Amino acid sequence: MPSNKIIGPVPVRPRPVIAIDGPAGAGKSTVARRLADRLGFLLVDTGALYRAVAFASERQGVAWQDAPNVEQVAEQIAPTLVLTRAADGSVRVALDGDDISEAIRTPRMATGASMVSAYVGVRLALLGIQRQAALQGGVVLEGRDIGTSVFPDAEVKFFLTAQDEVRARRRHEELLAKGTRVTLEETLADVRARDQRDRDRPVAPLRQASDAVLVDSSNRSIDAVVEEMAALVANVTR
Ligand code: DC
């Protein structure tokens, strides 16, 4: 008689899901991009989705503190959000057909994203897009709660971090390169405030999943970090 017993894990996805979580300025975006390109995987920058909610709320005159209305904005815009990659590899974000990629990458929208991301309705509204994008696997997702909450079953999980001062210095350099005039001290204060808000929120806070590999990028080049991560992915998925 044939047995219905399943022996061993059931393969649910043909290709792995790679989660990269960590605080602001740890180098997640660059590393995630490089890793995705190297593996030929899709890239999902989940922070861009929260930034889009902050942006859309502001555009509709909804204050970031106004949880019920921000949640409504998130539900309304979620189906219209599209993430793509430009020819130069950068992530582009469209909201109802409008390219908002530059508008969301400001210190102000970073703060707004951090505030609106604390609302459970916002997180739920954005969950579907993130899970849908990775249904077939072959995806690198970067964010704060991918390994703990969006894909607790991700095949490979990284928690990428770096010392506060190093992260602030990197952010500061990026902002100066874009022509944003801020001091290093202001950037450090922003980075710390955002970390604290992201860590202290009750829903899906920023934290390392128990099965995530901790990678500290403080004193290492991006190349070295990407090498280490790619080697681990190859090891786990072969
Ligand atoms: O990665 P980023 O700087 O674009 O993220 C902006 C904010 O969005 C971050 O401070 C917290 C929130 N966020 C989140 O709560 N969960 C994620 N998976 C990604 C970002």
Q: How do the strands and helices of this protein lay out in sequence?
A:
Elements: E1 17-21, H1 28-39, E2 42-45, H2 46-59, H3 67-77, E3 81-85, E4 91-95, E5 98-99, H4 107-116, H5 120-133, E6 139-143, H6 146-150, E7 156-161, H7 164-177, H8 184-200, E8 213-216, H9 222-237
Parallel strand pairs: 1-6, 1-7, 2-6, 7-8
Antiparallel strand pairs: 3-4, 4-5
Helix pairs in contact: 1-9, 2-3, 2-4, 2-5, 3-5, 4-8, 7-8
The structure holds 2'-deoxycytidine-5'-monophosphate.
2'-deoxycytidine-5'-monophosphate binds next to α2, α4 and α8.
- Termini distance? 34 Å
Low-confidence stretches: none
Which percent range describes the beta-strand content?
Answer: 15-25%
How many domains make up the 3D coordinates?
A: 1
CATH class: Alpha Beta
